């Protein structure tokens, strides 16, 4: 009896692993779920993700995320609002989802533009409240104005957007990477600020082109050893203090595409050379360049076999925008497999709904993607899985063979 229990004890983890292998190999080829409503192709997954985030935010998920991340409250509301903005782009007020989405965007913006939303940031920085808060809040407001007809825009919001752009312009003329916190500067945050200026020039008078060009010329003198924008810099002289990392590169490249397409394409080429990688047949984005190594932190999330969780999730959108369709599709399928999604008829969440920030990043990524085209190749992953399954199967056979002989 004791021998039988010992066999069961050793065989149970093997069986669990075998079931897991079968599951992921079936799930890994998950295609986007779309449906046609009228003449529009609707990403059903995205709609459910937005509904899931709406429910989470109604339950104060943004306040919970502030306890986990220094910018959690602003970040999740900005990403949620931007996902709705992208979804509603080119839709008119008669669209089925326009009114709901517009209300959600307004609520997200109002939360960010509140005393509580600003409470984690320092008003007395050279750029008031810092580059992170100013960048994301101004960019979201600009995107909100962009989906509205000119006659429907609130005058106070138009004025505030233009005032914030003037503050950004004044700040970057003195320091190309304004601080986000006292003594701390991360270039990804000013890039969002510059994206807000670029957005201004598409919505209103094109008045910041020369300022953006001058800023970019200075940025090119502060690149790291890989020719990429560093992850962090000295707030006094803008010299790199940490070389490029996948999480910030994935994010910056999304915005650089609209700031300066030529510079963005050159940076993307270096990004794919240094960060795009495959492990065990799975595509992902490294947190650190291929010639470097590091562990995970609050910016990167978990780093597994060198691939960063945040870098890969955000990188899905980056790769799509730069027309790397296969890599985009493969990361999309990975998220659907290893993100442990849960969905019902109304909503969809990832990681068992325990980390709404991840849901927000995924929804924001999906909101930019045309899901009609999908291509992925997991042949190598299936082969690795088959080899592992055979090894585990042999181990089971060996355990029970020994039982028979005993």
Give the key terms.
406 residues; mainly alpha; 16 helices; 59% helix
- The termini sit apart by 12 Å
Strand order of the largest sheet: 1-2
Number of helices: 16
The shape is globular
- Count of strand segments: 10
Following the backbone from N to C, one meets helices and strands in this order, namely: HEEHHHHHHHHHEEHHEEEEHHEEHH
Q: In terms of structural class, how would the helical and strand content be classed? A: mainly alpha
Largest sheet descriptor: 2 strands, antiparallel
The Cα radius of gyration reads: 23 Å
Q: Roughly how much helix do the residues carry, as a percent range?
A: 55-70%
Please state roughly what percent of the residues sit in beta strands, choosing from under 5%, 5-15%, 15-25%, 25-35%, 35-45% or over 45%.
5-15%
**Mean pLDDT metric:** 91
- Low-pLDDT runs of 5+ residues are none
Description:
The chain is mostly helical. The protein has 16 helices and ten strands. It has helices at 2-27, 44-58, 61-66, 72-88, 98-112, 115-118, 130-147, 155-172, 188-203, 209-219, 246-259, 261-275, 309-321, 325-338, 356-367, 379-405; strands at residues 34-37, 40-43, 232-233, 240-242, 276-279, 282-285, 303-304, 307-308, 342-343, 348-349. It has a two-stranded antiparallel ribbon. Strand 9 (342-343) and strand 10 form a beta hairpin. The longest helix is centred in the C-terminal third of the chain and has 27 residues, at 379-405. The chain starts with a helix and ends with a helix.
């Amino acid at each position: 009896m004791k021998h039988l229990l010992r066999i069961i004890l050793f065989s149970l983890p093997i069986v669990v692993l075998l079931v897991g292998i079968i599951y992921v190999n079936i799930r890994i080829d998950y295609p986007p779920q779309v449906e046609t409503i009228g003449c529009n192709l609707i990403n059903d997954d995205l709609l459910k993700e937005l509904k899931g985030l709406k429910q989470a935010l109604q339950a104060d998920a943004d306040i919970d995320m502030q306890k986990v991340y220094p910018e959690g409250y602003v970040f999740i509301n900005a990403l949620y609002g931007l996902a709705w903005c992208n979804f509603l782009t080119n839709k008119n007020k008669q669209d089925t989802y326009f009114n709901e989405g517009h209300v959600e965007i307004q609520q997200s913006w109002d939360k960010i533009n509140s005393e509580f939303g600003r409470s984690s940031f320092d008003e007395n920085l050279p750029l008031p409240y810092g580059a992170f808060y100013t960048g994301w809040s101004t960019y979201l407001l600009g995107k909100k104005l962009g989906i509205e007809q000119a006659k429907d825009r609130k005058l106070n919001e138009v004025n505030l957007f233009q005032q914030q752009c003037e503050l950004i312009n004044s700040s970057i003329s003195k320091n190309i990477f304004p601080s986000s916190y006292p003594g701390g500067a991360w270039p990804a945050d000013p890039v969002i600020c510059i994206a807000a200026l670029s957005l201004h020039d598409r919505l209103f008078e094109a008045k910041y082109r020369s300022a953006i060009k001058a800023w970019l010329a200075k940025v090119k003198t502060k690149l790291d050893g890989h020719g990429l924008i560093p992850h962090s810099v000295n707030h006094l002289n803008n010299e790199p203090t940490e070389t490029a990392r996948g999480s910030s590169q994935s994010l910056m490249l999304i915005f650089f595409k609209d700031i300066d397409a030529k510079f963005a394409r050159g940076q993307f080429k270096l990004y794919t050379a240094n960060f795009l990688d495959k492990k065990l047949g799975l595509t992902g984005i490294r947190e650190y360049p291929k010639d470097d190594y590091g562990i995970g932190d609050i910016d990167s999330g978990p780093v597994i076999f060198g691939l960063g969780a945040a870098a890969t999730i955000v990188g899905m959108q980056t790769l799509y925008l730069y027309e790397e369709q296969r890599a985009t599709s493969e990361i999309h399928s990975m998220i659907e497999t290893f993100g442990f999604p849960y969905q019902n008829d109304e909503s969809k969440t990832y990681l068992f709904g325990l980390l709404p920030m991840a849901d927000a990043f995924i929804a924001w990524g999906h909101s930019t993607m045309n899901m009609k085209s999908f291509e992925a190749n997991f042949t190598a992953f299936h082969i690795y899985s088959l080899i592992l399954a055979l090894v585990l199967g042999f181990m089971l056979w060996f355990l029970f063979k020994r039982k028979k002989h005993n």
